[in-house]
Write the structure tokens for this entry.
Amino acid sequence: MTVKKHWKQKLAALLTAAVLLAGLSVPAAGAEPAASADKNDGAIHGLMVRTRNNQDFPTRAGLSSGELIAEIDRIVFFASQNGYDTIFYEARPCGDAMYRSTYYPNSEFWTGEQGKMVLMFDPMDYLMKASRAAGLQVYAVVDPYLVAVSSEKAKTLSISNPATKIPQMAASTASGALYLNPGDDGAKAIITAGIKEIVSKYKVDGVLLENFAYPDASLKDAETYEQNGEGRTLSEFRQDSLYNLLARINSEVKSISSDTQLGVLMDYSWEDLQLSKTSAAAFAGEADPERWLGDRLLDFIMPQISCPVESETYDYETEAAAWKALADRYGAQVITLNQPNRVLSPTADQLFYKDPYEISSQLYINQKLGIQSSAMLSYSGLKGNLHNQAVNIMGMFSGASFLPDGYSLDISKNFAITRPNSAITVSTDSYYILGTSNPELPLSFDGEPVERLGRSGVFGVLVDVKVGANLYTFQQGGRTETVSINRPDPAATVSPSPITKIVQSSMFPAQAEPAFAGEEVTFRCTAPAGASVQVTAGGVTAVLAQAAYAAPGVPAVFSKTVLWPDNPSAETVKTGSAVYTLTYGGSTSTYTSTGELYTVGQNAKLAVSCNDYLNNVYGDVSVEDDFYMALPQGACDTVTENLQSYYKLSSGGYLPKSTADILEGSGNVANRVSDVNFYAEEKGEKFVLSGTSRPVFTARMDDGSLTVKLFNTSKVPASLGPYDSELISSLARSEGSDGSTTLRFHLLSGVRLWGYSVEYDGNDTVIYLKKAPVLSGAYAKPLTGMTIVLDAGHGGEDPGALGPAGSEGPAERELNYAAAWAAKQRLEQLGAEVILVNPEDERLSFEERMDPARAARADFFLSFHHNSTAESVDSSQSSGTEIYYHEEQSRLFAEKVSQALYQATGRPQKGAIQSYYRVTRMTYAPSLLLELGFVTNPAEFEALCEPLNILRTSYAVSDAVIGTVTAFQNPARDTSGDRVQNLNA
């Protein structure tokens, strides 16, 4: 043993002398370390480039200089184009060098054989030059200890490897892996010399020490400990060995450049680090980062955090916050090492993230905690943009807030009953009471504890409501809140309240109504029983009769059918309102009907015009929502049948009277077309038919054509085209026996329309054919050139549905706006032009919500909403998203949004649902109404208020947009947007 000790000491002395001759000072063990420079306050967006096992670079050993240069250029280009400002280059992967070194042999991952000489090309030198030219920093990543990962690999070491030259510097573990011995002075000297060489030769911006710890407890360093332990425990000796080496490295690095940053990769968890201090079963490599930071040996720490954001045990936020608190205590920087390579891809340890949005969520948590810097592991896993990760990460690097400035979705933690907020009367046998509470204190209902599923204290309780008065008592922290709900006996007879006036809405006509000359017209109203009612209209005066006996003063129906005067005219003329005279209780008063009468001459045709922005025409009024067609404002047609609430149109279908204006005059709606003109636009093509009226129409789009039938239309030129069109091959017309003209647009081979519209410009009919959007070639901005319109439902004085926070907290209105605003930020990051139709969070009409999309020729339209349930329902049983569409061309987009939201939020998806909401009835672009969750479900309401949830929703929307365009262009190869754009192409 004495001889061995003598030779080890001699070898260490010789090595130390050699290092000194090379100009490297070696501080004595335990010497006071040099103070580090101030931390780098700028945010770092780092890209890890692994060289070990040719993971990232080079892609294989033995590449030529030209091939190495090309690969480095691609890496630098990818980094600069995707928002990275720093490359973390693994310069010393395995006891060898990915650069030309005096102390370490050329890496086997570079040359194919460790120590093999190559032509005078230095990959790190070229990387530094290329990175500097692109404005990027470079940090050298150094594994100070690892020499060989197994006993077999140890047999292949180069003769120039330090562990081969001086075997006594190395030590193996029980598994056969070989390491430089952290306690050996000669090993410390060679490690320090190698790092000084990198800093002085390449002028790197920083050095990151990875695996800076004892590999495991089995390292065979007993002899070193015996020689140098000096009364310390093995653990203390090992900790001091790490500390002394770090002090040497810090001193030499800072002597070269005080601006060069020095950090350590923490590849153990905070939890394991704490357990290792008290339990022999937990081993964190004898690392002591608090001591290192306390003595200012480090500028930054890089925790490698593997636990996910959503975890029932130990989550990402808990881990990141602990490292942040440690760094803050000593004024150091935190750079998290995040692992996109684990997303939906099992790694060697079989741990992987099931959530494709995991890394974006982690970066959001970083922002929340004030951690500005991160590094991604690693280049090869990101360059293909698998699962949209490269694009999503770049979006998070922007640091953009996904909530408007000053916008808060905080939930009150004060104890309060919010629904009902006062005594109420209901007719149902159950009621779902909602409220807020302090989550730290127990809450009881009628003496029994109330379960609260979330963390904010919101709650809901379904109670039975019996006939009569019901009181429900809630208690928390010495306070009591009592809810009073009355339920009347449904069998009890309720006498109507007496009235003294004619009910305004009951008077005929309540809206514009035709009165046909020589035909009967029935006037009616509701007035006090026992009164006398007279009506005057169009020169006709009649006394109305009470329909049935009723007690004096109670509401009763009065009516009178009269014969409207003959009128041989061929025109329709506005007659005016009906005036009702009421005599009751000794006084007389008059009332004017809301609607007006129009006299239709005996030789006239009744014609009407659609007056709403979008008008539904029904096929069978006895069947709910039996839609026949939708018409824009101004469409005209003649009436063949006058029903109580509908007009039957000559084109077929029933138009509600509430959306119809009666046309005065001859009722001639014939549309005579004199010319057809073609115009090419950026987003589509339009055909303008110069006409004399605005015809009713039907339209049908399929994969090969668009067919538009124009009623009451004639004289369309027989010869149409040819047109210089990118969409159609020909346009054919045919005339029907019903006076209609049908135009059929035949599409070019391989062309599919994105949508269409039929509009009016004065009396001209404009038929618009919409081109399908394509993903752009703009780097990392695939939505460049697309226009997307977003609508936040409700707004202004209309709160929408109220959640557990009631009127004092986030209601549907706020959640709609937050979701739409976040989606706008995300879509704009990806290059889209985004129009938020209510940027001031106002209450808008349907026209104000929908018309911006039409005017902009939008490629997509989304209306953001949140769901609710009836007050008598247990809302805790209602959860998930509902995505509504109407037009068939919107189905694909609805399915993509539904799938993406499920992946992003985990809420149940009720799927794409075809329905008739007005905002979903656009034909020129996929248009959806999104119900993102139930605000009346306390647990879901809490999740909906989380900014992270809103961020993830915005990513789901953008991924669905990209996935829809991709699938539309390549329907046979639809992979739901998993790989939508190769950013390394």
